[in-house]
Each structure stands twice: as C-alpha cells, then as structure tokens.
Amino acid sequence: QVQLVESGGALVQPGDSLRLSCAASGFTSDYYAIGWFRQAPGKEREGISCISSSDVTTYYADSVRDRFTISRDNAKNTVHLQMNSLKPEDTAVYYCALRDSWYCGAQDDMHYWGKGTLVTVSS
Predict the structure, then answer these.
(1) How many angstroms separate the CA atoms of 65 and 58, rounded?
(2) CA angle 113-118-120, nearest 5°?
(3) Nearest-10 Cα torsion for 65, 79, 113, 96
(4) Which residues contact 67 (CB under 8 A, 6 or more apart)?
(5) 3-class DSSP state for residue 89?
(6) How would you class 103 by CB atoms within 10 Å of its CB: exposed for 0-12, middle for 13-18, buried for 19 or more?
(7) 25 pLDDT exceeds 90?
(8) Is 9 helix (H, G, I), strand (E, B) or coil?
(9) What pLDDT, on a 0 to 100 scale, did the predictor assign at position 15?
(10) Is the Cβ–Cβ distance between 50 and 104 less than 8 Å?
C-alpha cells in the first residue's frame, strides 16, 4: 500500500555532492513526516535528518549539519536530501522512512521504510 523508494545513491569521491530522493506513494494522508537514516558498515542505524509535514521543523544530526539539507516537494510526494562535502564516513546505506504524523520521531516511531540506496564515498 505505502511505498517509499530511495534513489540517487552512487560511488563518489570525498568532497563531492550527491542528492538523494525519496518518493512516497500509496499514502493518502496530507500530513506526514519523512526522515533519512543511514547504516554504515559495522555501525548501528542512525537518524541523520528529518522534515515534518509542511516544513514545520527540520532535524539534522550533528555529523551532517551544515553539509546536508533536507527538503520536500509535497506536490510530488518527494523528499530530497542534498549532501555536500561528502566524507568517507558518510558511506552507508541511506533509508527514508515515513511517520504518520505532523512531526518527526525516533526510528521506532517511523511507520514505513524504503529499501535503501547505497552511498559510497571513496577515492
């Protein structure tokens, strides 16, 4: 019913930029928050960014603040994550997740998940 599809992952060099997209479909509510999470090799999954419904609030983890920017296009049911100044430690599978709420929440609060897209930052 609800489907989230990430796209944009690639192999890039340190310092490069990349834009990830999360397309949501099958969700009939007008209000939902979408977050981005990532899981690096050997690490736990972490939340890196989230945007509330209608851009009420945004969240950034300290590790990506000032480098990543989250945005949403409600008309297209799409959320983007612009990633600049990528570092090798940004290498991870990136997931988007949807919460049936106005506001962002923790991982356990997310109702639907995409399958992820791989970002590899290496020289």
Answers:
(1) 11
(2) 150
(3) -30
(4) 83, 84, 85, 86
(5) helix
(6) middle
(7) yes
(8) coil
(9) 98
(10) yes
